[in-house]
Amino acid sequence: MLPIQKSHGNPFYVLISLPATAMGFALCVQISALSWILSTQYHLEIHEVGYVWLAGPLAGILAQPLVGLVSDRVWFWGGRRRPFIVLGGILAGGMVLALPFLGEIGKFTGLPTLWVAIGVALTLDLAINVGFNPTRSIIADVTPEGSGRTKGFTWMQTISGFFGVLAYVTGAVFGNYALIYGGAALVVLFNVVPSLLISEPRQLAGGGDAEPSSREPAPIGRLLHIFLAHGFTWLGVQTMFVYLFAYIKDSMVLSDTGDSEVGRVINIAFLVLNVVGFILPVLVLQPVSARLGLVRTHAACVAVMALGYAGILSFGRTPAMLFLFMAVVGVGWASTVSLPFAIVSDNVDGARMGLFMGLFNLSVVIPQLLASGVAGKFIGAAPDKRIVFLIASVSLAVSAVLWLFVRENPTGRTAARIQPAAH
Fold it and tell me: Which of 59, 67, 186, 397 has its CA 20 to 30 A from that of 132?
């Protein structure tokens, strides 16, 4: 075990954040480049782009719970999470590198570009899902329960968010192809090297056979309300990720309507989102949640995100206004990708952390399916593409309300219970 792991100092929290950062970086590349490539280089229609994005959620529905369950129970290559992190990282890096070559792959295989894109996206998302669950679970495995877990997941988002900013700076300054090539190398490096340095516990905390307390619902029941609240968050988030390009092309006033300008605005918008997303978790969310509790802090951030989406809907007709309100949206983004994992990890049996992290991912992938499949048809047919942010703002507002029904229990850990309204 490395000395920094024994001390649990900040360098250790940085180290354990790097595998999740790598998977987040792969996702940033996908968000920034996939829709842009499909629409500008291969001229797919909006609904066809949505079909490509369906591949990821379909992979996640099965991959994350299955990988989580298996990683809770196996031990090889000196760890239970390590093998999946290494394999997922290598596969994700390869699929990121394949994005600029969809046409060439199509010519070689004789398949239409749409089907090649779906295959690459499916494999990329499968790799991300294979790796993402263990990269989050390992943070819970090697950090102390309670404040240590919160610190672990807020540091995860801080480091991941910083590299997300780097991703969008690279895309905005040097173009999406530079982002793709550099991203492929970073994804492999940040997955493989840190996972070999982290010493995993052979025995996980907790026991799967323990009976739940009479005051507490069973773990699945305790998490269902969290799943619902988090699901509405991701319905809005995924709608923005997939269809922002359509909003920019059809509803914004641009000095240059060329494909490169649309790509530049997308990259700067996500850059602003991630700047706020990496600054807030350690500096703001961690101390605020220590005073207000994880759930109330997260509910407030989600409400701010809803207001940011409403601002884009009402005033985001120029790049400057879009960037301004994306900063507001970033408050909710910072919380969405950090605090819910701390909430879940504090409420489940440590010996089944991978399984429950995988099940919790269903609150992400099912909304992604709805956004990519159902919402895509409405957005494609709508004459006014501002409907993208109408869907996003309403979804986040519903999510904020649902989070208000999740309360903190007296021990400081969170318990999801629907409470009767006060009279």
Answer: 397
List phi, psi (to 5°) of 417.
Answer: -140, 135
Helix (H), strand (E), coil (C) string for 65-125? HHHHHHHHHCCECCECCHHHHHHHHHHHHHHHHHHHHHHHHHHHHCCCHHHHHHHHHHHHH
Within a domain: 206:
no
Which residues touch 135 (CB under 8 Å, ≥6 apart)? 19, 20, 22, 23, 81, 85, 191
Q: How confident is the model at residue 210 (pLDDT cuts 50, 70, 90)?
A: very low
pLDDT confidence of residue 300: 96
Total domains in the chain come to 1
Q: Is residue 178 part of a domain?
A: yes
| Residues 182-194: b if buried by 16+ CB within 10 A, e if exposed | bbbebbbebbbeb
Tokens of 217: 């619902």
pLDDT band at 188 (very low <50, low <70, confident <90, very high): very high
- The answer to whether residue 268 sits within a structural domain is yes
Give me the phi and psi of 414, to 5 degrees please. Answer: -95, 140
Residue 310: C-alpha distances to residues 24, 235, 244, 284, 328 (Å): 26, 15, 14, 24, 10
Q: 189 lies in which domain range?
A: 8-201+215-415
Quote the mean pLDDT of the chain: 80
In Å, what is the CA distance from 113 to each residue of 39, 118, 243, 317? 12, 8, 20, 33
Q: What is the CATH number of the domain that holds 20?
A: 1.20.1250.20
Q: 207 in a domain, yes or no?
A: no
Which of 35-44, 83-92, 136-145, 165-174 is the most confident on average? 83-92
Of 158-167, 308-317, 322-331, the least confident: 158-167
Burial class (CB in 10 A: 0-12, 13-18, 19+), 402: buried
Spatial separation of the C-alpha atoms in residues 298 and 303, rounded to whole Å = 9
In whole angstroms, give the CA distance from residue 199 to residue 24: 22
* 175 Cβ neighbours under 8 A, 6+ residues apart: 260, 263
pLDDT band at 389 (very low <50, low <70, confident <90, very high): very high
Cα separation, 31 vs 92, whole angstroms: 14
Both tokens assigned to 120: 């690459």
Residue 316 is given by DSSP the state: -
Q: Which residues contact 45 (CB under 8 A, 6 or more apart)?
A: 380
pTM above 0.90, yes or no: no
